[in-house]
Specification:
about 45% helix, 4 helices, globular, mainly alpha, Cytochrome Bc1 Complex, Chain D, domain 2
């Protein structure tokens, strides 16, 4: 988990089969992303679709899914990794972990 954050995480591995259902790769990525969220994010952010964040000014993952696009995600994740994102502590994630976390967030409808 202590690998350097890569700026090349512009697109998460969120592909679908075209039938509207996520493919197996996307489902596995989202499952790994949920585990990352539980470990690193759940202390402050609501990581479930219906929950509210425990820290008042902290957006839920559901809110972030609506707020960010691919370019915003890269900027926000770089700021987090550099320790420059508001009150957040730096969290070092590699490219796959970022993709997995984003795949999980995309499941929150």
């Amino acid at each position: 988990m202590l690998c350097a954050l890569a700026a090349t995480a512009a697109l998460a591995g969120c592909t679908s089969t075209g039938s509207g259902a996520p493919d197996l790769q996307t489902s596995l990525a989202a499952s790994r992303g949920r585990m990352i969220a539980e470990q690193w994010c759940a202390g402050c952010h609501a990581i479930d679709a219906a929950a509210e964040s425990t820290v008042r000014a902290t957006p839920s993952f559901r809110q972030m899914r609506l707020r960010f696009n691919a370019l915003n995600w890269d900027k926000a994740l770089m700021e987090i990794a550099d320790g420059r994102h508001a009150e957040m502590p730096p969290i070092m994630l590699n490219t796959r972990e970022i993709d997995d976390l984003r795949a999980y967030i995309e499941t929150l409808r």
